Amino acid sequence: MNLSSLDDFDKAGEKAEDVKKLLLIDASGFIFRAFFAFPPLNAPDGTPVNAVYGFCNMLLRTLKKHPDWAIGVVFDSSRKTFRSEIYSEYKAHRPPAPEDLIPQFALIREASEAFGLPPIELEGWEADDLMASYAKEALKNGQPCKLISSDKDLMQLVRPGVELEDPMKQRIVGIPEVEKKFGVPPNLVTAAQSLIGDSTDNVPGVPGIGPKNAAQLIHEYGGLEEILAAAPEMKKSKRRDNLIEFAEQARISLKLVTLDEDAPLPVPISGLKHAEIKSEKLQAWLDRLGFTSLISKLCTGSVSSPNRAQSAVTKKEIPVENVEDEAEAEWGNYQLIEKEAQLLTLIEKIKISGKVGLWGQPLFQDRFIAGIGGIALAPEKGEAALILFPSEGEEVGDLLAEAPEMPLLPKEKILSLLNPIFTDHSILKIFYDRKEQNRLLKKAGFEVIEPSADVQLISYVQSMGEFSHKLEKMTERDLQKELSDYGDKADRQRQKRSLLEIKPEEALAYCGMRADAILRLWYILQPALRGKKALSFYEETDLPLSKVLEIVEDRGILVDKMELAKISKELTERMEVLSGKVFEAAGRSFTLGSPKQLGEVLFDELGLPAPKKTKTGAWSTDASILEELSDKGYAICSHILEWRQLDKLKNTYADALPKEINPETGRVHTNYQIALTSTGRFSSIAPNLQNIPIRSAEGARIRSAFIAPKGRKLISADYSQIELRLMAIVAEVEPLLEAFRLGQDIHARTASEVFNLPLEGMDPLVRRQAKAINFGIIYGISAFGLARQLQISNGEAKKYIEAYFTRYPGILDYMESTKDFAKEHAYVLTPFGRKCHIPEIQAKGPRRAGAERQAINAPLQGGAAEIMRRAMIAVEKRLSKSGLDGKMILQVHDELLFEASDADAEKVAQIAKEEMENVVNLPVKLEVETGIAQNWAAAH
């Protein structure tokens, strides 16, 4: 960006020495910070006002710090700006504002006016553009300008005469800070951003180029156009190829990130003035909202948080513990524990606090070398200490040969001093991802850590599906803080850097900030559990479940490496046959796994009906396109789809599973992600066992490699048609409910009801059609989708669906009412009352249609997930007390897998069936099918 020259600024300053300084406040930053920092508050009329109250607090504090400055409070007017016309996906994936925040936007604009500061906003421009334009005007006038915002996009404006203040860190961001952030001076920030891109705003950038690469290119070649012009002459590399291929994308990105310094000024700069904080108008407005404590602070200069005496504001008493202090607590008061006396002092602080944020850091990221490197403890917000652990084991020695020396207490001393704290039931231990952290600490020698809390689960249970629950994202969103990292990015990705290989101050900042953030997050999120009707889900289901899953993961499952090698060979042979058929149809060989080459063969050379090209200009060859072409009779596409399926099974399971075997246990230990999906379903990683095909022969072949040891058996316990049962219940479909009560074949009964046929002697083909409709309805299937699945015409499929809804009108009513509810609230409810958020329900086009299907299915899938969560807790509890030699070792979809001795297998199966079928009380009985065998496929 090219603001007025510094000479102009200096000359203007000579002529206008007495001109007021200009302060521009980014309102959005204040609003979201206030909303997440303050607990739920309500005005006398019941309107949520926590963000309004926090905004007033922060605005008043800022005004008192800047007496006699001219003030501008700048707002975003809407999401649609001129950038949306340049790039339709710009900010398109951002979730809608939280439900309780939406009615507060208008009140916050009223707040600004009450302070005598008319809201500055302009349709079609972002607040950043207006701030850039005012900054340019201020420079012309010789008027010093300060921007208050934590938005990194404003760093491009920093220069003499224009400074940026980060309200979170309470520090000025100058040219050195900008260069530290981007590696380039402010005038080249946009060039860097155009290369890096921005996932938050959906700025595409150039794939594979991060901050370091961008800075290097800029220092070597100059601005974006100079870099793109030089790209063809660069040394051949993936980076060079991407610069050439995505040049236009980079140019678009530059337009998106460059602020418009010529945006119209809604209020003339001469019209901006200082606020009126002692006016009768402001006091009357604060009184209307019930902000009585703020009124009393206006004259004293002290600004605090709402308290229990503020009964006009709170509907009911809300325990607010120094809310403002929590939001404003400084970061970085961290210490490295070098001596026993320091640790004893820390322990006393923890005892006084009664709670502690806790972060255990692995020595290495390699999960098979899971030794602990250090543990950070935060007894108060803004305070944390890091205790480094002595390294043990042969696997550590060579890797740490050149590690810098760090102060280390003896491991035995650390354990002896901290174990009493960790087992003290008067002290709450607060984790992020308690399951993984507890496993790490247990392996280090610590005893069972109780009582404990988990901020990841607290966040998830309140906002399932609404946004990411990764610690970094939670900290950015709820605390407006970016967590520090350490070491070189490439080294971290290769997992070669350990905690003890970095400088002590880096280790302290990395771990200390995480413990600090965890404690701060608990203060913000925990009080909201009850108000969001999520407390019982957290305390009775999710937190106990994390403890059950920790046990299940530790047990693991045995896999037959010889069988996997045999499966891999079989898959390879079948893939070779299929690739031969593809090459014969294509008339030449090519890399079948390359979408680019495949697109050229299918659409350029063979002339198949072509889909639209992707943004990069290549033909799309995703599964839906190939399936459509396969349905039209193009055999080559059928062969490719089958080849891809086999290739995935081979690479993901047959070849990869042996590498996942833990050398210490000889078993595979999957890692369950329980705070990820929008419905409460688990996902799993390392390895992902949720994606093994359920009904295909190939999937069964993979499952056959999961075995029980000699003298033991695997027991499968699988819920039968659980989502169909839930649909019959929530839609109150009496014929289906009756069929379930009578134990009838539900698909045959549906065929009989819909097609008016006798139940006895039902044609298997007609039953299959009814089955497709039953399961398809759950996922919002269209006539086109059903037609393709049953290989019938669209018209015939449409008639089937219409007949289905005619016979079962309750299902259609359920679907429509659920979509309407989702559109109004941006979430749906499971039958048990848990919220499943659907952020994209207000989107347009295909994303909106997908969100509507998700809304229909989420209560059913979420209900099934809730039943499974409760069942796992109940089964584990009963088995642990039974005295039987049997244990739960796996959960996949609606199925639990157990391992038991030959003698106890039948009894374990019976216990699993009883607990799973009776864990909830429903209008129809749940049914669980069990099987016992030597391998998973046979048991299933």
TrEMBL record:
Keywords of this entry: DNA damage, DNA repair, DNA replication, DNA-binding, DNA-directed DNA polymerase, Exonuclease, Hydrolase, Nuclease, Nucleotidyltransferase, Transferase
Domain spans labelled DNA-directed DNA polymerase family A palm: 699-904
Domain 5'-3' exonuclease: 20-275
GO cellular component, one term: DNA polymerase complex
Pfam families per record: 5_3_exonuc, 5_3_exonuc_N, DNA_pol_A, DNA_pol_A_exo1
GO biological process, one term: DNA-templated DNA replication
Coiled-coil segments on the chain, per record: none
E.C. no: 2.7.7.7
Protein family: Belongs to the DNA polymerase type-A family.
3'-5' exonuclease domain: residues covered: 334-530
MF annotations from Gene Ontology: 3'-5' exonuclease activity; 5'-3' exonuclease activity; DNA binding; DNA-directed DNA polymerase activity
Keyword hit for Protease: no
InterPro entries recorded: 3'-5'_exonuclease_dom, 5-3_exonucl_a-hlix_arch_N, 5-3_exonuclease, 5-3_exonuclease_C_sf, DNA-dir_DNA_pol_A_CS, DNA-dir_DNA_pol_A_palm_dom, DNA/RNA_pol_sf, DNA_polI_H3TH
Enzymatic reactions: DNA(n) + a 2'-deoxyribonucleoside 5'-triphosphate = DNA(n+1) + diphosphate
Name of this protein: DNA-directed DNA polymerase
